[in-house]
Amino acid sequence: MTGGNTEQHIVSYGKLTTVWLGLLALTALTVWVARHNVGIGHVWGSLAIAVTKGGLVIAFFMHMKYEGRLLRWLLFFALAVLAIFIGLTFFDVLYR
Amino acid sequence: MTLPDLTTTTASSFWNDTGRTGITAWIFSTDHKRIGLLYFYTVFFFFLIAVVLGVLLRIELMAPGRTIMGPQTYNAVFTVHGVLMIFLFIIPGFPGAFGNLIMPLQIGARDVAFPRLNLFSWWLLIFGAGIIITSLFTGGGPPDTGWTFYVPFSERTGTNVSLAVFGVFTVGFSSILTGLNFVTTIHRLRAEGMTWGRLPLFVWSIYATAWVQILATPILGITLALIIAERFLGTGLFDPARGGDPIMYQHLFWIYSHPAVYIMILPGMGIISEIIPVFSRKPIFGYKMIAFSSLAIAGAGSLVWGHHMYTSGMSDTAILVFSFLTFVVAIPSAVKVFNWVSTLYRGSISLDAPMLFSLSFIILFSIGGLSGLILGAAATDIHVHDTMFVVGHFHYVIFGGAVFAFFGAMHYWLPKFYGRRYAEKPAIVAWALMFVGFNITYFTMMVLGMKGMPRRYYDYLPEFAPLNLVSTIGSWILVSGLALLLVNLFRGLFKGESIGRNPWGAATLEWTVPTPPPTENFEEEPVVTHGPYDFKGAGIP
Amino acid sequence: MNGPLHKDDAGAKLGMWLFLFTELLLFSGLFLLYGAYLNRYPHEFGAAGREMHLGFGTLNTVILITSSLLAAMAVTAIQRDERRKAIGLLGGTILCSAVFLFNKYLEWRAEIGNGIFPGSPRLVVGPPGESVFYSLYYLTVGLHGLHVLIGGTFLTLVAVRVQRGTIHAGNYVLLENSALYWHLVDLIWIFIFPLYYLIL
User: How close B330 gets to chain A, by Cα (Å)?
Assistant: First the structure.
């Protein structure tokens, strides 16, 4: 099965710039949150913001929003495996 | 539709069709068949060295006290035996040799998705192997840590751990690239009509294996890098005096190394699924379940690594969780065994060499698998952990399982690529010697383990002496069978009787091309209209 | 004789994504260790986090996010056959990567000057959690920096090919794949930043 660039998805400069501004805003937010919250509880908050930023990069910069189902499912699968590796390890780490 | 019985000479096959001459025609080839053979001979070379080391280990253990080597040498020998067998034979060998040789043909493709990357993978194997070999003869000498490189010893020993581990890292990178190549190939290059539901089960097994290669091997990469960092940079991440936790090393190591054993066994199981239908003249029983079970084994097998760590100091909760998950992974393996046996039922069975290896696979793998349940149950594991029982267990599944499947594949498929076959009777004798010798060698180990003999110990109590002697004698029978197998097979491949296009009467696509296959595999891309075990549909009586 | 290699851009992209997964899993080992040790040493991690140079970290985050923007724009440019713009954008990305690495150098020079490096006397005698934090920091950021270098190299090679015309609107999968790699480098930093600089 050969194929050229039959399905091109071109993301406009405008859209990319908007995403960039969003990423910058989230960065500012996460720094602000960290400086105004003491304690470890905000680790989850920082991670949530990081996940959002990551999602934007993957969806728009990496074009995942415009890709087919296969790639999306494979990404989900890889992330699930990663989560499982860390999660199962924590059955040990948390309960020593 | 019956195809003509195209017996060709090697004149127009992949053996001769190239623009280069001599060795460069091979080591710079991007033809998956040539690369497959390169992998085959590379890994087989290391297999033979590792076999010799194994024989030497058994000679040392033949009697208490020193027999032929001192304790430091013994530690190095079992370490190198493991490293060669695991990282330079089985893990690269199954996907690299038979995956490369067979998978593209079986899906009706001309080659893999990334042929140059494929060649690069083989070169990485060679470089990694070179680094590992170098580590044996330089610096502080060959590593003595066991192939598992546990901390703290691997951080402190003066032997050449860093270089060896860097070699393994390189070989791991080779494995990753092969996995990536194969997944892409199977998704993108299947011929018309070759739906997922018509894929040969060997291809399903290679697919599942490739995913493990992609997702698990990088963890090995970072773990090995951490060993080097600990040794050179003093990072202290696994050193309790510096705040580290040695158990974290074990987690990282086994997160890869347990799924790695599924890299070792899944292609073997795929081979069995190919051979049994052909030599029973019956379609495989439960195709969908076997395909699904390959994925299930890869998936569930990635969740159980903690069963290597029950006695390490891990939390009780983790012990419980991992023990339960370990029992779960036994289920899809059992599903395969049931389906193979059901395929045999009322089949027209011919006991050719490939079939003998496949049948003995079922027996030996089952014994190994059952002993795995004893190890997987945390309570019983406490008694047998780090004893010879473990050594017996994994040799049953890896040697009696995966490697016997490898031997079956050698007899089944190599003749297709050489155009000649081995002699049947010596092959059967060789198999019988190996089967008997194998059980004597490794069953006694399981008994010794139950009785309390530790593994990786240079010496043992006098009460273990008789069984150790028996085990060693078994190893001599085993090796003599192996020698006969190799002499017979390779003499046959180079000088034996010529074979036609489809000597075994199989229905998968690799048997539709001339013998040996031409470089481009198929003159025209095939259009698939029947399943891989549908002998009638393929027009084969 | 090997025939012409068939062109399968979707396959090439799939292969690249699979490779990105492996890179993700490679770093995940270090993040796993971070998680386990954060759980064990929450206060020492917090204390060490407070000592990190937030300014450098934030600046580098902004630089990488911007470099990602430029790389994504380069893909759009080549798709629209705007070759010179593509080269300019790629050049911008590469420049960002160089600035990032230079910042890293300055940061590490300061830290090493303060006696903070793996196995340093100060860390060996200090609280164990602090030593673990900094060991993980150097390994993770170091490995990341290596990937910045690799990504920058890929992008340079791609820029040369755009210049030569071997990468163009009808055949740009190499550029696309190099951009994907670059975005991964950005992604990893997006997680490094809060874990090492914002644990306050």
Answer: 19
Question: What local confidence, expressed as pLDDT, does residue A41 receive?
Answer: 60
- Residue B312 has a pLDDT of 96
For B278, B504, B526, B535, B538, the CA distances from B541, given in Å and listed in that order, are 11, 11, 21, 7, 9
Complete domains list, chain B, with CATH: 10-512 (1.20.210.10)
> Which ipTM score applies to this complex?
0.94
> Rounded to a whole number, what is the distance in Å from the CA of C107 to chain B's nearest CA?
19
pTM for this entry: 0.95
Is A55 found in the same domain as A79?
Answer: no
Does B8 score more than 60 pLDDT? no
Percent of chain B with pLDDT over 90: 95
Q: Which residues of A touch B219 (CB under 8 A)?
A: 85
Residue B180 CA to residue B211 CA, distance in Å, equals: 8
Between positions 266 and 295 of B, the ones with CB within 8 A of C are none
DSSP B327: H
Instruction: Provide the domain count of chain A.
Output: 2
In tens, the pLDDT along C41-56 reads 999 999 999 999 999 9
Q: In Å, what is the CA distance from B168 to each residue of B20, B118, B173, B214, B218?
A: 31, 18, 9, 16, 12
Residue A77 lies in a domain: yes
pLDDT at position B2 over 80: no
Q: For B508, which DSSP code?
A: S
Contact assignment for A92 to B251 by CB distance below 8 Å: yes
Are A53 and A75 in a shared domain? no
CB–CB contact B110 C6 (8 Å) = yes
CA atoms within 13 A on the CB side of B144: 17
SS3 at position C10 = helix
Q: Is A18 in the same domain as A55?
A: yes
Closest alpha carbon to B494 in B166, B8, B10, B6:
B10
Give whole-number Cα distances, B488 to B171, B493, B504, in Å: 31, 9, 19
Q: How far is residue C147's CA from residue B163's CA, in Å, rounded to a whole number?
A: 22
Please name the residue ranges forming H helices in chain A: 13-35, 42-56, 69-93
CB of B174 within 8 A of CB of B35? Answer: no
CB atoms within 10 A of CB B348: 8
In the numeric block, the tokens 């809060």 are attached to C194
**Yes or no, beta carbons of C128 and B242 under 8 Å apart:** yes
Predicted pLDDT at A1: 39
Determine the residue of chain C that is closest to A87 in CA distance.
C32
Unique residue bearing structure tokens 């939390």 = B315
pLDDT of residue A2 exceeding 50: no
- Give one DSSP letter per residue of C12-77, joined into a string: HHHHHHHHHHHHHHHHHHHHHHHHHHHHH-HHHHHHHHHHS-HHHHHHHHHHHHHHHHHHHHHHHH
- The whole-chain average pLDDT of chain C stands at 94
User: Is the confidence at residue B94, as pLDDT, over 80?
Assistant: yes
Here the tokens at position A11 are 């993301």
3-class SS of residue C168: strand
What is the Cα–Cα distance from B430 to C147, expressed in whole angstroms? 51
Q: Exposure pattern of B520-532 as b/e (b: 16+ CB <10 Å)?
A: bbbeeebebeebb
**Range(s) of the domain holding residue A22:** 10-62
The pLDDT value given to residue B535: 93
| pLDDT average, residue stretch C90-115 | 96
Q: Is residue A2 part of a domain?
A: no
- Whether residue B315 and residue A94 make contact (CB cut-off 8 A), yes or no, is yes
Task: Give me B221's structure tokens.
Answer: 């990469």
- The CATH number of C23-197 is 1.20.120.80
**Phi, psi at residue B177, to the nearest 5°?**
-65, -35
The closest CB to that of C198, out of A46, A60, A71, belongs to: A46
- Residues of chain C found within 8 Å of residue B176, distances taken between Cβ atoms: 22
Tell if the CB–CB gap between A93 and C39 is shorter than 8 Å.
yes
